[in-house]
Amino acid sequence: MGIVSVTKLDLFKFLPFRLNRLAAEVSSKLSDEYRERSGLDIPQWRVIATLGFGGKPCTAQYISRCTRTHKSTISRAVSQLLKRRLIERVENKVDRREFALRLTGKGRTLYLDLIPRLLRKERDFLASLSSEERRLLGNVLGKLEKSLDLAQTLKEAGARGGY
What we know:
The protein folds into 2 domains: 38-120, Winged helix-like DNA-binding domain superfamily/Winged helix DNA-binding domain (Arc Repressor Mutant, subunit A, Orthogonal Bundle), CATH 1.10.10.10; 129-163, no CATH class. The chain contains 7 helices and 2 strands, in the order ααααββααα. It has helices spanning 15-38, 42-54, 60-67, 71-83, 105-126, 131-147, 154-160, and strands at 87-91, 99-103. The protein has a two-stranded antiparallel sheet. The chain starts with 14 loop residues before the first helix and ends with a helix.
């Protein structure tokens, strides 16, 4: 019998591991801002952010697809946000069994209050990069997203049923 060669996987060089770890850490650092200011957890913020960004009502299923968050996690977040009156249900006039979600006035105010703070945090994260490196990072991420057939614009996301 011959010797079987096993290639060692170095997680610190394995792109999926690195991207996941980086995304989790950035998300955690951003969550400090909206947790302290608004009492939102990460799934609740994802619901608020998706509704605020899109600007029109959408379903919990759509939010789940866009944020890559399990539907039960989004469902719990939706229930909590409905209780806090940050979001509301909008009836589908064609199919009364289905409903969409939208921000209430209170929810929109909270969203608009958080945006400048979160953008400031993003600038802080990117401050270690030169302007050329930030541009290059944006291009590289765009290429990776495109290679995975991820939506690149809000219009495209709408046509596909998610980001």
